[in-house]
Structures are given as structure tokens and as C-alpha cells.
């Protein structure tokens, strides 16, 4: 490695180590050990005339050797000195040179590996893989032998028994042995040639069909004895076999045959062969992230054996056992990474210690027009205790829509302020931030706590004033959107970060706001409750509090699914509710990824509703492209009842709180996901009157129907979340891409949920014995975590 790289690695880990509170945890494997190694290699790069520096670096090497024995305070002092030395060195030029290349490159960590690969062997090294095939494999994400082996079959076909032609009576997978009797082929349109043949086994004649594979036609002329595998499907009244595979009798592969996700120019047959070859030549060389001791204690098969099971199973049960074993490796890695993140933060011990603030909290609760629910009290207690500890808090607050998370957030913010710190509250949309700002200002003014609101549309002067006030500490709470993340937002003493609707933000954004304080406490909130295993997967670094009780006196929301023919009745309902002092939202279709079309739809609905349906009522309109003031005005007019009907896009989805609203009409409801429908429904039922949610949907597919039924059946967010997970799968539900966590290749959140729990327990246990993954047994694990979860390092 070149000396500049060594140098910048040293600077980087050192500053990270200081940032993380000198826990020796800034690098997997330990900061001190890592730093010493870097120093040693740097010494080898010193110029001959810089002997004095050689001595200095050697001294520091030995100081770092003692690092683990020092107290946190001593470590901090030491690293401050070290930093000074490094800065001093940077001011000199010509200290280092690159050693001649013939020397073997020292293995320095973190290594700039592209990705994790145990085989580490580029796929081109395999016999039979030239540039063209390598290119095709790359399309499947396969660049190394290990990638290939981790490319698991999507399904298996059971070819352990063959059928007689006479017994092919219904559609399905079959394998049949017989003699090709005749062949035909005919080009239909450019690029498509249909081949047909007839297979005779003495019990009958089976028509075969395949497309665009001339070599089958050539290799198996009439008279050849073959075994054919494929899917029988109806063509008119009779069955024909769609050929997947055809082989000479005696050469056919029988038993359980894997079917891989394939790509053009890379047929099953080749993938199967490649996998077998890789298994034979490289299987034993695969390195497993699960340490040997854990494997032994859990009685796991080796990773090589697991690979054999999935690629060459003797039974379906064996294939599944292999898959689960590989899934365990995968979830174990992730849980391990999360536990490392937790430990690193937790062991720093230099976080903010908030005070109990009993008096201030009592004063705040006095100001509320209602008593806190028991759940609210419990959750506030949990968060408070966490905030009082020296270890930084990292907590997720899950609570269904309308459960009353805001007052929990306000309470803990007051606690932070009473302890002499600032609190920042980040919301995902301007409207929501504004609403929170207004509410918080109103609530906290009597307590003399100034609340700032940072928004995109502020005048330059007011913005500068606010920024200055945050920097000098005269404003103690700030509410805002992503605007808070900007570099020029600087706090004097940020002690608490709260993120609302946190699934709308990525890991990095969380980290950015968090990084504006000195290890502040972090509370993230979500109204999209998620099942436990999903929470463990996505937020494994967080403790979880659950607000599982809604404020009393709420009437349940009546939910109905109707067709658009029911609009006359919907109109009546809206009129009746408004006459009784209520308000109604009409949410227009979400047209995927196209805000312009959404807005067009809203404008059109607005025209119809205001001119034709409710000419006698005032109707308002709200969508994302309105100017900030116009949005605020529309919300205000609705809240005050000046425009009791509000036609809107999903901008009203999140968090909007107008207790008088009692009707939520969602048009084209099938276009929305369950979580979104539930959020929208949560905009009503916030006051004391009974409320209604009307789902208007005409054309329903299966899944759409299930969603509507789920909505009508329950208004429990947790139940709906489970349902959503089943219907849509976890990726879509949460948008894992955004979350910054690599997706599972093998593990399945639902099927493997017990593995996830187990992996977490073992990760905790393992780290107790080897907290920095320094043992020989941890080598592979440490390596993989470092490369796969590089993105989590920042946090
Ligand atoms: P969410 O959890 O969805 O953010 P909010 O914090 O917006 O919910 O609360 C929903 C509504 O319930 C608000 O109008 C709020 O004033 C009210 N509320 C909160 N806590 C209570 C309580 N303990 N008793 C009665 N009403 C409450
Ligand atoms: Mg809320």
C-alpha cells in the first residue's frame, strides 16, 4: 500500500476513534492494534534522512500497545497528543516515500475490497468461463466463484421418477422417457422459431414443443431414445409438453434438479454445470462468517456441506436444510453488525446524561387538556431512564397512528432542555414540520421554552437569526425538515435528536443529524409499526418502545369498501357530518412516481367536487406543488372549518392532526399500500365523534381485494403490518434500499423469523467473549462485517 493511503487510513481511524469516545472500537479488530500496524508500515516508508521521526513513530507504536489498559480520560488525552503529532508530520514534506514495489503489499485493514467474496476467485478463473460468459454471469450479479455458489436455486424440480406418456393426464411437471418419432419446425415471426416433436414410449404419443433451440432439433433426430423434462400444458383440449430439458437416455440427470434464476444466453444446464464444478473445486475453500465455535455449539453443518445440499440435493428436505443453514450465516452477519454498532456506541460512556427534570415535566403535563395514557407514561419512563444513562440512547418508538407520540416527544424534549441541552425534531414534510412547530410553540410557550422552526421557505434574515440562536444556544428546541441536515446548522449543545416517521429517512440522514451533537440521545419514531423480526433486521441497533394504547374516548373508525357508484351516498355522509361540525378529506389516486399526474387528478377532482357535487360548500385543495404559504393556508382553512371539504394528494398522509375531521374518502384505494391506507385513515378518528373511512375502489385484483378486506376487518396497525408483510414482502414494505442495509439473498423474514431471533442471541453471546473480534475464530466474520457493512460505520 502507498504511504499516502496508510497515512489517511491512520488519520481517519484516529479521528473516528475520538469521535466514538475512545472505546478502541473505531475499527473492527480494535483501534490500537490497527493503529500500531499502520504505524509500523509507515515507518518502513520513512526517508533515510528522517531518522528522528522513525523514533517518534516507534514510541507511539509502543504507546498504543498500552492503549487498552488506559482509562477513557487517559485515552482521550493520549489521542489528542497523537493528533497533534500527526498534524505536525503533515506540515513537513518529504518524510515518506513509497517502498519499491517488489515488496509484498502489507495487508492493511480496512481493505478496499469491492465486496465480500470468500472464494475471492474471479469467475473467469473457472474452466469454461471466458469473457462472454463472465459478462452474462455478471448480469446475475456473479463476479466470483463465491457469488456463483451463493446464487441459490429459485426452486427445484423433482425428477426422481419418470412418468409414462399414458399417465400425463393433467398439467404439471413431468419427466418422460421415449423415442423421438417425428419433428417439425417453423419460423413464425422474426426471432421466433417453434419446434415440435412427438415422443413415443409404447403407452402413447406425447406432443413436445420448444422455442428457439435448434440444437435440440439437431441432436435428437427421429429415432433417438431420450428423456424429456418439462411442463405439460393444455393446447386446446390436449396436453403438450413444454420442453425444459432433453437428454440422451442413460445420460439424463435425475433426482432433485435445481432451477436457477437465469438470464439470456445462460441456460439452466450451464448454470447447473458451473455450480457443480464450483462446488467440487472450491466448495471446501469457502470461508464461513459463522465462527467455528458457534457452529459446533449449534450443531450446524459446514458451509461447504450446506452448499452441496442446495446445489446437489438428494431430497427437497435436504435442500431446505441447506438453505436455512446459509440463511443463518446471512442473518448472523447482520445481527453481529448491529450488535457491534450497539456495543461501540454503548461502551463509549461519554454520552449525554440528562437529568430527571421531574418538576418541569409535571409542569408540562399540567398544561395538557388531558391526562396521559398509561402507555404514554410507561414509554416516557422508558425513554427517560435511557436518557439519564451515560451511554447514548438509541431508541425506536413505535406507536400506531393517533396513539399520541407527539406529547411523548415533547415531554422528552422538555427533559433535555431542563437538563441544559438542545433538542432537534426532524419531520419528513414541510406541512408536518410546520404543524409540529406551531403545536410545540403553543404548548411550550407558557413554560418559557423557545421553539424554532427551520423551513425551506424562510427569508434569509430570519433563517440567519435562527441559525445564530441555535449556535449560541438561545433557542433550545428546533423543529424542521431535511433542512436541519444542512451543514450550516450548528448547535451549541445538542443533547437529543428526535426523528418523526423515521422510515422516511435513511440511515445516513439519521447519522447526519445525530452527528451535530456530542453523542446525543436519539429517539426515532414511526407510525408504521412493523413486526418484531423485521424491526430486528432493519433497526437491530435500536431499543424499542411500543405505544400500544390509544387515548381513551375515541370512537372506532367505521371503514367501508365501496365502488364509485356509491358516490351519492358518500356525498350524503359528507353533508351530514359537516352539518354536525365535522370535516371531510377526499384523497385522490396516487399515480406511481408521477407527482404531476397526481396533481392533475386532484385539480380535476377539485373542480368536479366544488362545482358539481358541493356547489354550496367551500372546498379546499392541497397538494405538494403548492407554495408553502398556500399549503399552510389550505390546512388552516380546513382546520378552522372555513373549507370543510379538503381534496388532497397523499401529502395529508403523515401526521396531520385535525380532530374535527370525521370523514376520510380514499379514491382509487387499490392504488395505495396497506401502510399508506392505514396512515390516511389515521387522519380521522382523532376527536370524540365517530368517524368514517370510505375506500372507493372499482377494479380489484386479488391482492387489492385482500388489502381492502384487511382494512375493513381491523384498524390495528400492528395486525395490518403483519398482513402487509405477507402480501408484499419486506423489501417493498419498508423500502430496504433506502434503509442502507444490504438485502438478504437467502433469508426470508417470514420463513426464517426464528433464525433471526436465534442469530441475535448468538451474536450477543459471541461478542461477550470477543468484543472486538480479535480472536482467530473471528477473522472471517470481522472481514465480512467490515466490507459488507461499511455503510454503517458512520453511525
Ligand atoms: P401520533 O402518535 O399519530 O403522532 P398524535 O401525537 O398526533 O398521534 O396524537 C393524536 C391526537 O391525540 C392529538 O390530537 C393529541 O392531542 C391527542 N392525544 C394525545 N394523547 C392523548 C391523551 N392521553 N388523551 C387524549 N388525547 C390525547
Ligand atoms: Mg405523529
From TrEMBL:
GO terms for molecular function: 3'-5' DNA helicase activity; ATP binding; ATP hydrolysis activity; DNA binding. It is an enzyme of class 5 (isomerase). GO terms for biological process: DNA recombination; DNA repair. Its EC number is 5.6.2.4. Transmembrane segments: none annotated. Residues 386-547 form the Helicase ATP-binding domain. Keywords: ATP-binding, DNA damage, DNA recombination, DNA repair, DNA-binding, Helicase, Hydrolase, Isomerase, Nucleotide-binding. SUPFAM superfamilies: Nucleic acid-binding proteins, P-loop containing nucleoside triphosphate hydrolases. It holds the Pfam family Helicase_C. Residues 569-726 form the Helicase C-terminal domain. Belongs to the helicase family. RecG subfamily. Plays a critical role in recombination and DNA repair. Helps process Holliday junction intermediates to mature products by catalyzing branch migration. Has replication fork regression activity, unwinds stalled or blocked replication forks to make a HJ that can be resolved. Has a DNA unwinding activity characteristic of a DNA helicase with 3'-5' polarity. This is ATP-dependent DNA helicase RecG. It comes from Heliophilum fasciatum. The lineage of its organism: Bacteria, Bacillati, Bacillota, Clostridia, Eubacteriales.
Amino acid at each position: 500500500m502507498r504511504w499516502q493511503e496508510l497515512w489517511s487510513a491512520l488519520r481517519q481511524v484516529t479521528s473516528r476513534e475520538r469521535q466514538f469516545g475512545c472505546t478502541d472500537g473505531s475499527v473492527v479488530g480494535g483501534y490500537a492494534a490497527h493503529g500500531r500496524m499502520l504505524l509500523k508500515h509507515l515507518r518502513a516508508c520513512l526517508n533515510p534522512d528522517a531518522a528522528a521521526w522513525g523514533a517518534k513513530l516507534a514510541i507511539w507504536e509502543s504507546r498504543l500497545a498500552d492503549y487498552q489498559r488506559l482509562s477513557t480520560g487517559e485515552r482521550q488525552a493520549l489521542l489528542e497528543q497523537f493528533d497533534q503529532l500527526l498534524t505536525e508530520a503533515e506540515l513537513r514534506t518529504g518524510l515518506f516515500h513509497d517502498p519499491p514495489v517488489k515488496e509484498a503489499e502489507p495487508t492493511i485493514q480496512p481493505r478496499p475490497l469491492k465486496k465480500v467474496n470468500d472464494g475471492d476467485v474471479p469467475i473467469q478463473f473457472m474452466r469454461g468461463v471466458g469473457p462472454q460468459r463472465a459478462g452474462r454471469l455478471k448480469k446475475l450479479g456473479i463476479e466470483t466463484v463465491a457469488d456463483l455458489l451463493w446464487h441459490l436455486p429459485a426452486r427445484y424440480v423433482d425428477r426422481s421418477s419418470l412418468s409414462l406418456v399414458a399417465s400425463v393426464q393433467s398439467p404439471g411437471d413431468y419427466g418422460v422417457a421415449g423415442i423421438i418419432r417425428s419433428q417439425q419446425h417453423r419460423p413464425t415471426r422474426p426471432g421466433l422459431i417453434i419446434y415440435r416433436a412427438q415422443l413415443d414410449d409404447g403407452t402413447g404419443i406425447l406432443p413436445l414443443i420448444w422455442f428457439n433451440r435448434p440444437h435440440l432439433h439437431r441432436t435428437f433426430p427421429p429415432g433417438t431414445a431420450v428423456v424429456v423434462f418439462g411442463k405439460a400444458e393444455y393446447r386446446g383440449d390436449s396436453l403438450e409438453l413444454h420442453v425444459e430439458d432433453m437428454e440422451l437416455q442413460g445420460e439424463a440427470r435425475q433426482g432433485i434438479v435445481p432451477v436457477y434464476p437465469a438470464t439470456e444466453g445462460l441456460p439452466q444446464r450451464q448454470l447447473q454445470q458451473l455450480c457443480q464444478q464450483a462446488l467440487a473445486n472450491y466448495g471446501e475453500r469457502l470461508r464461513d462468517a459463522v465462527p467455528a465455535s458457534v457452529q459446533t455449539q449449534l450443531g450446524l453443518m459446514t458451509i461447504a456441506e450446506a452448499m452441496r445440499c442446495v446445489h446437489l440435493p438428494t431430497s427437497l428436505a435436504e435442500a431446505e436444510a441447506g438453505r436455512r443453514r446459509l440463511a443463518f450465516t446471512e442473518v448472523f452477519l447482520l445481527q453481529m453488525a448491529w450488535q457491534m454498532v450497539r456495543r461501540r456506541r454503548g461502551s463509549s460512556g461519554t454520552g449525554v446524561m440528562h437529568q430527571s427534570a421531574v418538576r418541569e415535566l409535571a409542569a408540562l403535563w399540567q398544561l395538557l387538556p388531558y391526562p396521559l395514557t398509561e402507555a404514554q407514561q410507561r414509554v416516557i419512563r422508558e425513554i427517560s431512564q435511557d436518557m439519564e444513562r451515560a451511554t447514548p440512547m438509541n431508541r425506536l418508538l413505535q406507536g400506531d397512528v393517533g396513539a399520541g407520540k407527539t406529547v411523548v416527544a415533547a415531554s422528552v424534549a422538555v427533559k433535555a432542555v431542563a437538563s441544559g441541552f438542545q433538542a432537534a425534531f426532524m419531520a419528513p414534510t414541510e406541512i408536518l414540520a410546520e404543524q409540529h412547530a406551531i403545536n410545540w410553540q403553543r404548548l411550550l410557550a407558557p413554560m418559557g421554552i423557545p421553539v424554532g422552526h427551520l423551513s425551506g421557505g424562510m427569508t434569509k434574515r430570519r433563517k440567519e437569526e435562527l441559525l445564530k440562536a441555535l449556535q449560541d444556544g438561545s433557542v433550545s428546541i428546533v423543529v424542521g425538515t431535511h433542512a436541519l441536515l444542512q451543514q450550516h446548522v450548528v448547535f451549541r449543545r445538542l443533547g437529543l435528536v428526535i426523528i418523526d416517521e423515521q422510515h422516511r429517512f435513511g440511515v445516513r440522514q439519521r447519522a447526519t443529524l445525530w452527528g451535530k451533537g456530542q453523542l446525543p440521545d436519539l429517539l426515532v419514531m414511526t407510525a408504521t409499526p412493523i413486526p418484531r423480526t423485521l424491526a430486528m433486521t432493519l433497526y437491530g441497533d435500536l431499543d424499542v418502545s411500543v405505544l400500544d394504547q390509544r387515548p381513551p374516548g375515541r370512537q372506532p373508525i367505521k371503514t367501508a369498501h365501496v365502488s364509485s357508484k356509491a358516490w351519492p351516498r358518500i356525498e350524503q355522509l359528507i353533508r351530514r357530518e359537516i352539518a354536525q361540525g365535522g370535516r371531510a378529506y377526499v384523497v385522490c389516486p396516487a399515480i406511481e412516481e408521477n407527482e404531476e399526474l397526481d396533481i392533475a387528478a386532484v385539480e380535476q377532482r377539485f373542480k368536479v367536487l366544488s362545482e358539481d357535487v358541493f356547489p354550496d360548500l367551500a372546498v379546499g385543495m392541497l397538494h405538494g406543488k403548492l407554495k408553502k404559504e398556500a399549503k399552510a393556508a389550505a390546512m388552516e382553512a380546513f382546520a378552522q372549518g372555513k373549507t370543510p371539504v379538503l381534496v388532497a394528494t397523499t401529502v395529508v398522509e403523515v401526521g396531520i392532526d385535525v380532530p374535527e375531521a370525521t370523514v376520510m374518502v380514499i379514491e382509487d384505494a387499490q392504488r395505495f399500500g396497506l401502510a399508506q391506507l392505514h396512515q390516511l385513515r389515521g387522519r380521522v378518528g382523532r376527536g370524540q365523534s365517530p368517524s368514517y373511512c370510505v375506500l372507493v375502489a372499482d377494479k380489484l385484483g386479488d391482492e387489492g381485494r385482500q388489502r381492502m378486506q384487511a382494512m375493513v376487518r381491523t384498524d390495528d396497525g400492528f395486525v395490518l403490518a403483519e398482513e402487509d408483510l405477507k402480501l408484499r414482502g419486506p423489501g417493498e414494505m419498508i423500502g430496504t434500499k433506502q434503509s442502507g442495509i444490504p438485502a438478504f439473498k437467502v433469508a426470508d423474514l417470514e420463513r426464517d423469523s426464528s433464525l433471526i431471533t436465534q442469530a441475535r442471541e448468538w451474536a450477543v453471546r459471541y461478542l461477550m467473549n470477543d468484543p472486538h473480534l480479535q480472536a482467530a475464530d473471528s477473522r472471517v466474520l470481522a472481514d465480512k462485517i467490515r466490507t459488507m457493512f461499511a455503510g454503517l460505520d458512520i453511525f
